[in-house]
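pipeline: protein-struct stage 2 | run 1193 | Amino acid ABC transporter permease
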Amino acid sequence: MSTSEGSVSYKKADASYFEQRHLSRYAGIWSLWALGVGAVISGHFSGWNFGFATGGWGGMLAAGAIIAVMYLGLTFSIAEMSPALPHTGAAYSFARTAMGPWGGFITGLCENVEYVITPAVIVTFITAYVNSILGLDAAYSPIVWIVFYAIFLGLNVFGLELSFKVTLVVTVLSLAVLVFFWASAIPNMDFSRWALNIGVGPDGAAIELPEGGGEWFPFGFSGVLATLPFAVWLFLAIEQLPLAAEESVDPKRDMPKGIILGISTLILSAFMIVLLNPAVAGVGAFHLGSSLEPLLDGFRAVYGDGGVVLLGIVALTGLIASFHTILYAQGRQVYSLSRAGYFPTALSLTHAKYKTPHVAMVTGSIAGLLVMMVIWFALGAAEGGAAIGSVLLNMAVFGAMFSYIMQAISFIMLRINQPDIERPYKSPLGIPGAVLTIVIAVVTLYYQVQDPNFSKGVLWVAVWFAVAIAYFAIIGRHKLILSPEEEFAIAHAGGGVGPGSEEPAPAE
């Protein structure tokens, strides 16, 4: 039976439709904590450090604090929305309830870019480490990509319990590596000599001060703002946690706790790594401003090059943790949009035995790999390998920033327009916290645009958006399914599912 709401049409699916798309519940507070922290932790191993070249040490610290405020506003908002709307759709589900089907779909597209592309970015970093450790020729990089995708897709597909156990182990191991580094760095740090060894040259670019003793903010306040995009990598992807809502044992109780524990852990870790990594004698902020492996550089400075293979393997843990957990998020994000009919419904089929969204995970991974292969072979191995990281990274961050803005707007609209929704947890920052998230995200986007590599990423995101929106406008909006999050949104908009319709199918 079909019904309509505005410009979209819904089909009433029978019980067998949802049985073929069933998820299992397993995750508790610590599984959720590991999922959130594990997704982000690679950003503490590499990527964030490029901010030293634009802001100096003080600029990086200040930018990190500003971005932490943005993520606090965001995470407190989703900590309120997720138990109130405990569906796998997460950002799409929030926006769907607040802004209708088109708002939900656009928000889902933003997250889709982030979760399909981010694993591709991380696997390029993993490959660089593996090539260095094993002495492999970079020409074989595509083979390494495929091997890592295959291994961690397997771990994600063959059982939810296995996936969460792997997530917990690699996340704890990654944090243990960071704690070990902090303990190693503290007795070997000379803050003024090394962390403050950046000055400004006649052309306005960073120069090395051989004796250190530079200013905390060599580039002034504009340098702080220019550093915001790099600080994002210290927290990017914590927002994926609500995608596990339908696999959480008690999302109304555990989801807020998992989110808040996760962001608290990440803020502490981010502060320690920004403080200690550049201050280690022999490293320095100037060198880290262009380093691809800042944590490994720190270990080398303390322990020498003798154990470089072992140290390289140790440094891989954070990258592997994030790769594994974001593959999980990718599958759930594609699954949720597919189950509701925004994407082709075949993508939301779950494994008959393991009840994991294997079709969504495999399809999303193939899409990410195809993008990488196109860049690799179109530009040639050398140039393509260098371009993959910068282009895909900017695509992922672009999608993430827009999804943050849409989620914060959703939070504000739900607070104002639907105050009677049951809220097991309420954000202590409220609407002001969501407004801060929007403002900081917009400023960060503005400074990302200043990066010449950014325009390439935006172009490809625009192409993907155009294709997806055309599909939805022509086909998808007439094939929506009354999934749990869609029924919830329609019911709380006051319209029910239409006169004479059948009783809604129960949420899974």
